[in-house]
Amino acid sequence: MELVILDTPEAIAERAADAIEELLTAKPDAVLGTATGSSPLPLYDELTRRCEAGRISFARVTGFMLDEYVGLPEGHPERYATFMERHLRSRVDMRPGALHGPDALNPDLQAACDAYEAAMAAAGYCDLQILGIGADGHIGFNEPGGPLDSATHIDVLTEQTRRDNARFFDGDIDAVPTHCITQGLGTIMKARRLVLIATGENKAEAVRQLVEGEVSPQWPATVMQNHADALVLVDPAAASLLTAARP
User: Are 62 and 98 in contact (CB under 8 A)?
Assistant: First the structure.
């Protein structure tokens, strides 16, 4: 695992975008895993700028989202399919329909999980997976206590996760869904490269566990310690609890 501490979200975005540009230059038809939330937004802005400048192209890229809420109707502004359309797919030259997500509108949610895992397997899984991290150490929506080798599955969102995400729902925790479909930790680990972004003091304990803690289901992101190519990009606030931080 490579840890890099950078001063600003913009610097982090540039470093993450460099990794994606390197991938797309070498493999224009790459499979890219995308993350939602506030952490990757500067990255999506930077990727948009580079696409507009002709430095990169998403024309042959296939994308797979990490997760999706269960219970939000199609077109809901906080549905992750809507989020990714708004913040990345529609802003670059990615083909309509090239960015896939789990079908959380399917009445048979287990069938939706199985189909999504099969689609990723057919694509060869992700060449690069963008990740954020929750304050409780979740990646994707893999909440603490689940198996470290899980496939795509239905998960129950913890109260902390729902409280953290209430800011996207006008501060109303009751509006935040209670369930989701998420890539499993085993699925995420099949990506050939992981790039995790964490900013802010509220992520400091999760980052400390990720970098310096034991691999444990109680801190799901720690499974990344077993990955052959994981890049962790954090700001000084998120790195503030590290005892052995290295630039």
Answer: yes
Q: Would you write out the chain's pLDDT as a tens digit for each of its 247 residues?
A: 999 999 999 999 999 999 999 999 999 999 999 999 889 999 999 999 999 999 999 999 999 999 999 999 998 999 999 999 999 999 999 999 999 999 999 999 999 999 999 999 999 999 999 999 999 999 999 999 999 999 999 999 999 899 999 999 999 999 999 999 999 999 999 999 999 999 999 999 999 999 999 999 999 999 999 999 999 999 999 999 999 654 4
Beta strands 99-100; 128-131: pairing state: unpaired
- Say what the pTM is: 0.95
**Percentages (nearest 5) of helix, strand, coil residues in the chain:** 40, 15, 45
Closest C-alpha to 66, from 190, 171, 160: 190
Q: Which residues pair with 39 in a beta bridge?
A: none
Q: Are 40 and 20 in contact (CB under 8 A)?
A: no
What is the C-alpha separation between 42 and 3, in angstroms, rounded? Answer: 19
Task: Catalogue the active-site residues.
Answer: 67, 136, 138, 143
- Looking at residue 28, the DSSP 8-state letter turns out to be T
Number of H helices, E strands in the chain: 7, 10
3-state secondary structure of 14: helix
CB 170 within 8 A of CB 193: no
| Residue 65 three-state SS | strand
